[in-house]
């Protein structure tokens, strides 16, 4: 069920801190070209779902944060 997470989290809103945590985990997993491809797909999927949880969620900003290189 697509609504399982939302139904279990009634009254508990995800915050920018939560989104940053998820982006940080994905970014840390992006250690090789192959991993970056997978991370990009995961970031896009997460962004789509997180936008359903918070209408102000910025999908592009989230995806960029997941893929941004520190180099």
Detailed description of the structure:
By secondary structure, the protein is mainly alpha-helical. Helices cover 68% and strands 0% of the residues. It has four helices and no strands. It has helices at residues 4-8, 16-28, 33-53, 59-67. The chain is elongated and about 35 Å long.
Summarize the structure in short.
The chain has four helices and no strands.
Sum up the structure in keywords.
mainly alpha; about 70 residues
Write the layout of secondary structure elements.
Layout: H1 4-8, H2 16-28, H3 33-53, H4 59-67
Helix pairs in contact: 2-3, 2-4, 3-4
Which secondary-structure class do the elements indicate? mainly alpha
Helices and strands, in order, run as HHHH
Oligomeric state as shown? single chain
Radius of gyration equals: 13 Å
Q: Number of helix segments?
A: 4
How helical, in percent, are the residues?
55-70%
Taking the alpha carbons of the first and last residues, their distance comes to 40 Å
Determine the mean pLDDT.
85
The amount of beta strand, in percent, is: under 5%
Largest sheet: none
Q: Shape from CA axes?
A: elongated
Tally of DSSP β-strands? 0
**Stretches where pLDDT falls below 50 for ≥5 residues?**
none
